[in-house]
Amino acid sequence: MTVHSSKSQISSEGLLDARSQFVLAEIIKEHRRTGEPVGSRAIAERCASGAGWSAPTIRNVMSELEQAGLVEQPHTSAGRVPTDKGYRYYVDHLIGAARLSRVDTDTIDNLLGISHLSTGTGAARLMEGVSRLLSELSDNVGIVVSPPHAENRLLHVEFVALADGGIIVVMVFAPNVVQNRIVRTGETLSQDELDRTARYLNAEFTGKSLTAIRAEIIQLMRNEKALYDRLLRNAVLLFDRSLEDEESSAGDVYVDGASNILDKPEFANVARLRELFRTLEEKTRLVQILSECIAGSRAGDQARVRIGRELGAPSMQACALITAPYRVGAGGGVGTLGVVGPMRIEYARLMAVVNYVARRMETVFGEDAAAV
């Protein structure tokens, strides 16, 4: 790298010159390795062979980076650490697309290649396994969120009469996700009536999403014929009870590896750590944060990165979140997966990991949907 000026330059567009980019990247690499503030001497030693890269010169560049808000000095006598703005610049301008190692791809393929969704809990087991996989590959927190229940496509429904008048509703959604619930209609329905109603519903609604089914049920409720046709009336009654609360329900959340962040220096503050754990345990808030991260994206899009204050949640201002969407089968709902860790996370590699896992999950779910 050739440098023609002893003074670093930051353009009006906020772009750094080559020297400043190099120093920022070196600060981030060293801080990621040690977790400690980085001094000018450490950077100068890494650049000893370059002309003009003395410790005083590095200190000047670091001061300019600090004035630009890209690094900060936690203590007067300490070195610098990157800010969330500095990491954002690094992600946007200084890293390229990483190639996953053979070890990473083999680890991912071994899990997803042997996963079969032939049982009702297969999808749940797969998502749980993927959250654990992401945690292990990142040494941080792995998260998987299934598509919102409103996007689930119905494959099959059954009704089973109980002795106390209740009815077990068994709904199978793509990709072979089974949900059971007990509903009460206030009426006595024979098993024969329930079977005939299930056959009608399977004929009319198989392959449709909960959102579409809800709209059609509402239309049936307005249809005078449903008042006089017992089959229609039973169908409306049973399915309306079965879908209560499902349409507005968020996807299921699978979190693994929260203990990985216990020994990270960024979370040495017990109060900060407690708040982060509380956020990770709060399903609704976590889904909201991940949904905001992939807002406007579609299945197949590349991983997105949110850093520090970009996440909006005070409990996550020391964190980075890397997410990617995935689709469950052709025409199915879109879920989210990702990794949460400190801001000094390994961005390039983990963006590649998250992308690769998302695409492999789509392949597995797509193969399962085709087999149904």
Oligomer: single chain
Count of helical segments?
A: 13
Strand content: 15-25%
Residue runs with pLDDT of under 50 for 5 or more positions: 1-6, 115-121
Descriptive report:
By secondary structure, the chain is of the alpha+beta class. The protein has 13 helices and ten strands. It has helices spanning 18-34, 40-46, 55-67, 84-94, 102-113, 122-138, 191-205, 210-221, 225-228, 230-242, 270-281, 283-293, 347-371; strands at 71-72, 81-82, 141-145, 154-161, 167-173, 177-183, 253-256, 304-307, 319-327, 334-342. α1 crosses α3, α5 runs parallel beside α13 and α8 packs across α10. It is elongated. The model is unreliable at 1-6 and 115-121 (pLDDT under 50).
SSE topology:
Elements (H helix, E strand, L loop, with lengths): L17 H17 L5 H7 L8 H13 L3 E2 L8 E2 L1 H11 L7 H12 L8 H17 L2 E5 L8 E8 L5 E7 L3 E7 L7 H15 L4 H12 L3 H4 L1 H13 L10 E4 L13 H12 L1 H11 L10 E4 L11 E9 L6 E9 L4 H25 L1
Antiparallel strand pairs: 1-2, 3-7, 3-10, 4-5, 5-6, 8-9, 9-10
Helix pairs in contact: 1-3, 1-4, 2-3, 5-6, 5-13, 6-13, 7-10, 8-10
